[in-house]
TrEMBL record:
UniProt protein name: Cyclic nucleotide-binding domain-containing protein
Annotated SMART domains: cNMP
Top-level taxon in the UniProt lineage: Bacteria
Domain Cyclic nucleotide-binding: 9-78
Gene3D superfamilies the record matches: Jelly Rolls (2.60.120.10)
InterPro entries associated with the record: cNMP-bd_dom, cNMP-bd_dom_sf, RmlC-like_jellyroll
Organism name: Streptomyces hyaluromycini
Amino acid sequence: MSTTPTPTMLRALPGGHRERLMRLAREVSFPQGTRLFEEGARADRFWIIRSGRVELDMHVPGRRAAVIENLGHDELVGWSWLFAPYVWHLGAEATTPVRAYEFDAVAVRSMCQDDPALGNAVSQWVGQVLAHRLRASRTRLLDLYAPYGADAGI
């Protein structure tokens, strides 16, 4: 998978923006095996992992769900909340007990709309995460499903 680290909120957002966003955070925990969301369901929240691991997966017709990425400390779980039509593009499951900060998507989008500088910073951060996840998804799906030697002619 990708060798570049996923952009974290700590690295991506200036201190003042981080502090404002964290005022909306609610501490939550999930036992191992909890599905945080399913592909195609309404994306109305997101999480920053405090401890534990979350696995992102993608439905593949006729096969088991493909694990796309494993997330841990300080990583963003969920980006679909920021982009209409606000439905999950992947699924997510806690593979260990997880403690996280949970954010209400409507409240964060409203805060971003009221403060364009914050909105731009959040959009840049989530966009960087999205780009990272797309690269990881492509690599993982090629690893899992491409025939050996498929890239020989590229």
